[in-house]
Design goal:
Elements: H1 4-18, E1 25-28, E2 43-49, E3 52-57, E4 61-66, E5 72-76, E6 89-94, E7 99-103, E8 107-112, H2 120-123, H3 136-143, H4 153-156, H5 168-177, H6 191-207, H7 220-224, E9 254-257, E10 264-267
Antiparallel strand pairs: 1-6, 2-3, 3-4, 4-8, 5-7, 6-7, 9-10
Length: about 280
Amino acid sequence: MPEGDTLYRTAELLRRALGDAIVVSAHGRPGGVQLERVVGSAVAGVEATGKHLLIHFGAGLTLHTHLGMKGSWHRYRPRERWRRDPATAVAVIETAGAVAVCFDAPTVELLDRRALRLHPGLARLGPDLLAEPPDLVAAISRLRAPGRHDLSLAEGIVDQTAVAGLGNVYRSELLFIERLDPFVPLRYLDDADLERILRTGVRLLRANLEGGHRVTTSSAGAAASGPRGGRRDARRWVYRRAGLPCRRCGTIIRSASLGPLPRRLYWCPSCQAPRREP
């Protein structure tokens, strides 16, 4: 699933492509979103909030997409051949100079902009870690909510209603960097722990805003020269490295499914050993 940095880059790409141009053609898939309503309107802005993307139009309407596990936005020149099957397109916006196409997104809806603050998915979002500045006090407060006391740390930091922007890759990587047990309940962490985790999340997200391969190690070269690291997958510490030796200590990296979605967590049993008993 795309994470906050991916959505930020997508918003930047679409903002440059669409600018404030007039929409000359727009449509969804048959039976889907009625994008024809924005034809003749100017693109008034593009923004990412957490893992959601919003395209605003001068007509007072906003296209809201959530990419889920497989969705993506592409930018093309007019009449350029698409790189994916047109049958999978769920939203198409065309101006005189560009075509923006959303493929395979599970959430695609056209909303009255005045209703955005009441939208159940958007209104419940926690503070966005890529906001300027991110509201870490509010994020910590949400992680402290009574209903999350027994939630594991690894589940809590990807709960988008607590803090928006972190996903499966970042939770494994930042908890390894901070040497924290991913299974510890949130109630056993103090505010200083949570602030440190969130600040590391902000740092990793911002370090990857320029695109290219996502890097969560201090540098690919540094990771490759670390203990027993080799040069394989030098961009990450633990994610998708189950069965391989930890770059710090040589212990075999483990993985397990965690949470309601089929997403795997990766961790080092030695570097991230429990530090306190429940």
